[in-house]
Amino acid sequence: MNEKEYTSTLHLPKTDFQMKANLPNKEPKYIKKWTEEKIYEKGLEKNKNGETFILHDGPPYANGNTHIGHALNKILKDIIVKYKTFRGFKSPYVPGWDTHGLPIELKVVEKLGVTKAREMSPLKIRELCEEYAKKWVGIQKEQFIRLGVLGDWDNPYLTLDHRFEAKQLELFGEIYENGYIFKGLKPVYWSPATETALAEAEIEYKDIDSPSIYVRMKANKDLLDKIGFNDEDTYVLIWTTTPWTLPANVAICLNENFDYGLYKTEKGNLILAKDLAETVFKDIGIENAELLKEFKGKELEYTTYQHPFLERTGLIILGDHVTADAGTGAVHTAPGHGQDDYVVGVRYKLPVISPIDHRGCLTDEAGDLFKGLFYSEANKAIVKYLTGTGHILKMQEINHSYPHDWRSKTPIIFRATEQWFIRMEGGDLREKTLKVIDKINFIPAWGKNRIGSMMETRPDWCISRQRVWGVPIPIFYNDETNEEIFHKEILDRICDLVREHGSNIWIEKSPEELIGEELLVKYNLKGLKLRKETNIMDVWFDSGSSHRGVLEVWEGLRRPADLYLEGSDQHRGWFHTSLLTSVASTGDSPYKSVLTHGFVNDGEGRKMSKSLGNTVSPADVIKIYGADILRLWCGSVDYRDDVRISDNILKQMSEAYRRIRNTARYILGNTYDFNPKTDKVAYKDMLEIDKWALNKLEVLKRSVTESYDKYEFYNLFQGIHYFSAIDMSAFYLDIIKDRLYTEKKDSVARRAAQTVMYEVLMTLTKMIAPILSFTAEEIWENLPAETREAESVFLADWYVNNDEYLKPELDEKWQQIIKLRKEVNKKLEKARQGENKIIGNSLDAKVSLHTEDSALKEFIKENLELLETVFIVSDLEVVDSADENFTDAEEIEKLKIKITHADGEKCERCWKYDKLGTDPEHPTLCPRCTAVLK
Question: Measured between alpha carbons, how far is 414 from 284 in angstroms, rounded to an integer?
Answer without folding.
Answer: 28
